[in-house]
Design a protein that fits this description.
Number of strands: 24
Helix content: 25-40%
Strand content: 15-25%
CATH superfamily of the largest domain: DD-peptidase/beta-lactamase superfamily
Oligomer: single chain
Structural class: alpha+beta
Radius of gyration: 36 Å
Largest sheet: 5 strands, antiparallel
Length: 596
């Protein structure tokens, strides 16, 4: 048999080799892809981490990702400030990553994000993050100014051009005009006019340039730097409703990223009563002082005259409403508890005289009616600093009053009220106690509303916020009863109104004493001359002059179903029962007569 060996020509060999070549090619390609994905995966991860940290405001994490070299050119504070400033410029409210990272040429990674803004709607934009791999630090984000906001191209800076619309008309509770801007005016005008003229100035307040304390917050809402906004009074308290919505363009360099038209706000109805506003301003006259009128059940402010919102003075014996509440709540005394008659009380060896050396005492009810310091100062000591302060804070001391621009009434922490004299002085509204007419009106309103402190507001018709519990209805009823006695029989008789039961409390706060250096500090005593309230032994002359005392009165009427509360402060105007009580009566009569 002849054996012929098997042979292949070139074509056969090529045909047989093709599957092997193809397999090798696939293997090479897979290896190349795996290697490439390893690199891009690391870059994608870092870019996504960087942008996710931005969406969460974690600028510390972002700063760490740019590496030590870049950190030498920008501090952590400036780095965070740049990002925060860009978000304010865009009026951003929230940011989030919306998709996976995507590779771009030259080491850039694109991470899509969505930015919700107050003015410009929702922006869908990409962050283009350049990642540098290798080196001693590993992968790092290459920082540049275009990274402060998504969608920026090299050389572009984020900015905006915005304007405010015409400021809205401010209405009274009866829908009459309180303040308005000229037709055709925009947000950079400072012109506001009122049909009430000067009668409305105290309650309206003013408009002006952006205050430094509010600049960042206003900028984040799109308000332009040269705008006119409310800076005091009603214009400030209702500024967010009056100024409308800014409009304009969000710019990346010269490119418009987004735009929105300014939108005027509708007319804003306030709680202010023109009749009571006129009555309050008229009753105050040219006197330096303040008046606040409110509804006790809703906290709606009906009128403001003078410095009723923004000035703090020692409240004197109007603070005894607070002390009395604490004493009754703690069960230390009741209206029928009897105290010895005396012309003074001795605290820390210092005599606190009653007015003109008068002798007072008897029941707690009588002592409150005549505002007897020789009873209330020692009662304050029994109550103690901690309970005095906690009771006052439930009434609203040491906390913002809820009206923007209104002053916060204060008293020291218990640890700072040391010794019997300090505690007793605090209990009668002296020491370091400071209050506004708004605060003392709020104290009276709390009693009027069965022990619930209302939230002061200028908004008409808004649902009344639940009052803060301060005392039980039973204690509030007792304090009300004793306040009625003040007006019927005690230091507040000049606030009495025929056929109307009025509840009130006088106060006369001493501003300085004529004591020698060995006597107690000026703020630790309280003379109230004819009103039955007292100062320390050894003080006289200037200390007993009307010009050395602030006159106060806080009241509500009708006492049983209260409709109005008034707080009156007259600076350097004598005794509260003599001067402030008649002013309160005049305002209450006007309000009850008009039905406000």
């Amino acid at each position: 048999m002849f054996y012929r060996p098997h042979t292949e020509n070139q074509a056969d060999r090529l045909r047989r080799a093709r599957p092997v070549i193809a397999l090798a090619s696939v293997a090479f390609a897979v290896g190349a892809i795996v290697g490439a994905n390893h690199t891009s995966s690391s870059a994608h991860q870092l870019a996504t981490q960087f942008v996710t940290a931005w969406s969460r405001g974690n600028y510390t994490r972002m700063y760490a990702d740019i590496g030590a070299g870049a950190q030498q050119g920008v501090s952590a504070g400036d780095f965070a400030g740049a990002y925060e400033g860009a978000l304010r410029t865009a009026t951003a409210t929230s940011e989030r990553v919306t998709g996976g990272a995507r590779s771009l040429p030259d080491g850039f990674v694109e991470v899509p994000v969505r930015v919700r803004t107050r003015l410009f709607g929702t922006l869908s934009l990409p962050f283009e993050v350049r990642v540098q791999e290798g080196g001693g630090e590993g992968a790092r984000v290459v920082f540049s100014p275009t990274l402060v906001f998504p969608g920026l191209h090299p050389g572009e800076v984020l900015s905006r051009r915005t304007t405010l619309p015409r400021r809205a008309t401010l209405l009274a509770r009866d829908r009459s005009v309180l303040a308005e801007s000229p037709q055709g005016s925009e947000g950079d005008t400072q012109q506001r006019s009122s049909p009430l003229g000067e009668l409305a100035s105290a309650v309206l307040g003013t408009v002006g340039p952006l205050p430094a304390s509010r600049r960042k917050a206003l900028e984040s809402e799109g308000v332009p730097a040269n705008a006119t906004v409310g800076v005091s009074g009603l214009e400030l308290a209702m500024d967010d409703r009056l100024r409308g919505t800014p409009g304009g363009e969000l710019l990346a360099g010269q490119r418009v990223l987004a735009s929105a038209a300014p939108r005027s706000a509708p007319a804003v109805r306030s709680s202010v009563s023109p009749e009571l506003q006129r009555a309050a301003v008229t009753a105050l006259g040219g006197q330096l002082g303040g008046i606040v009128v409110m509804q006790p059940s809703t906290g709606q402010i009906l009128a403001v005259a003078g410095i009723g919102l923004d000035s703090l003075q020692p409240p004197g014996s109007t603070f005894k409403m607070v002390t009395l509440t604490g004493v009754l709540t703690a069960g230390i005394a009741n209206p029928h508890t009897v105290f010895p008659y005396a012309t003074f009380a001795t605290l820390d060896g210092v005599k606190l005289n009653n007015a003109n050396g008068e002798e007072c005492g008897g029941t707690l009810e009588l002592a409150f009616e005549v505002s007897c310091n020789s009873v209330f100062a020692p009662l304050g000591v029994k109550l103690g600093a901690a309970r005095i302060v906690s009771t006052a804070e439930r009434f609203g001391f040491n906390r913002p009053p809820g009206i923007p621009g209104a002053a916060e009434s204060t008293l020291p922490a218990p640890s700072q009220i040391q010794g019997e004299l300090d505690v007793g002085s605090t209990a009668i509204g002296q020491g370091q106690v400071l209050a506004s007419a708004l605060q003392m009106a709020t104290v009276a309103a709390t009693v009027a509303d069965d022990g619930h402190r209302p939230q002061p507001t200028f908004a008409f018709g808004a649902p009344a916020a639940a009052g803060v519990p301060v005392m039980s209805a039973s204690v509030a009823g007792t304090v009300r009863h004793l306040m009625i006695g003040v007006v019927r029989f005690g230091t507040g008789t000049q606030a009495a109104i025929p056929h109307v039961v009025v509840a009130g409390k006088t106060g006369t706060a001493e501003l300085k004493t004529a004591c020698s250096s060995s006597d107690p500090p000026p703020s630790e005593s309280e003379p109230e001359s004819e009103s039955g309230e007292a100062g320390p032994e050894g003080c006289g002359g200037a200390a007993n002059e009307a010009s050395n005392t602030d006159a106060w009165f806080a009241a509500f009427a009708p006492a049983i179903h209260p409709r109005l509360v008034v707080g009156v402060l007259l600076v350097k105007d004598g005794a509260g029962g003599d001067t402030a009580a008649p002013v309160a009566r005049e305002v209450l009569e006007a309000g009850l007569h008009t039905g406000s």
